[in-house]
Fold this protein.
Amino acid sequence: MPPCPNGTPSGPAIALVTGASSGIGLAVAKALLGEGFTVYGTTRNPGNPVLDPGIRWLSFDGSSEAGISTFTHENRELL
């Protein structure tokens, strides 16, 4: 487990990376995986077979209030 910012462990290291299916988001998600984080990544198509299987994919369309509300409702236990 990576160290906490203050140097004391506080439980599992978990990250939520938006836009993790490509570009900078994907690079960040992979770097966090490499550091031992459990990574949740958002994408509009979590069933896409080319997505990194090490990332826990969540469906998210942040282009509308409805998409944000749906994401929040469906993933309440994670937030």
